[in-house]
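Tip: read the tokens left to right.
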């Protein structure tokens, strides 16, 4: 996740029929994302949109840990 994406964690997604999603826009605040969602639904009423908080887990940033040795 880039630094810009970390600054703007609220994402408006367009939901596609094949169960995929496309990020339309990112926002810093939830109310901004919801206002944009409302406008998009008015402009394109036949398209499904959703708002989501995008968080990447910290484990993806760390190096893989080596397994602990088995106790005998």
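Filled-in amino acids:
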């Amino acid at each position: 996740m880039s630094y810009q994406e970390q600054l703007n964690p609220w994402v408006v997604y367009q939901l596609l029929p094949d169960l995929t999603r496309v990020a339309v826009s990112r926002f810093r605040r939830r109310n901004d994302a919801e206002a944009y969602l409302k406008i998009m639904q008015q402009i394109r009423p036949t398209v499904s949109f959703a708002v989501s908080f995008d968080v990447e887990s910290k484990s993806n940033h760390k190096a893989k840990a080596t397994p602990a040795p088995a106790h005998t």
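The chain is about 25% helix and 25% strand. The radius of gyration is 18 Å.
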